[in-house]
Amino acid sequence: RKEVEQDPGPFNVPEGATVAFNCTYSNSASQSFFWYRQDCRKEPKLLMSVYSSGNEDGRFTAQLNRASQYISLLIRDSKLSDSATYLCVVSVGGSYIPTFGRGTSLIVHP
Amino acid sequence: NAGVMQNPRHLVRRRGQEARLRCSPMKGHSHVYWYRQLPEEGLKFMVYLQKENIIDESGMPKERFSAEFPKEGPSILRIQQVVRGDSAAYFCASSPTGGGTEAFFGQGTRLTVV
To answer: Which of B48, B101, B104 has the CB atom closest to A97's CB atom?
Structure first.
């Protein structure tokens, strides 16, 4: 089983839609959780950290479910500029290496 | 505050040559991670370094690859005797304290082996 798993998509949604991605992780001892965004052929950029209590940043909401070992990202009122690949990241192992899922592709169309 | 700087941005090497990739972390960051990304693939962890120490190199091939992060200067990822399969984007990320804190990425080096 992969350490971090994501549905690769693509998720194809119209502008203004709400879209949600899930990510599961296998190591119950994982400590830190993040969502990154990667545009084509560019570096990953930190979108937000994910906390047990859940957290919100504008149109983006992240949730962590430790019992079921998954994290989620909700994007409300999608914009064309939200089109990108969204990477789930979990810090695993004794060294807490940031481990990336393969990403979920989002395409927002007019 | 400059971000993570990687150079060169693009590197072309012939099979059998050496490739040296450099990464200068953000100011105040002493933890560096290297990742490799093949086309249409995810980021694969290679090595985690702190100043003058390799903390975890479990993702790095045993042959031809090495990494260092000296007391002074950038972190270097070195690939000896490159082969076509080494062609990829190599990203470096830095964090202030490790231990699962946020990591920030450089723009990457795209290595092409011809």
So the answer is: B48
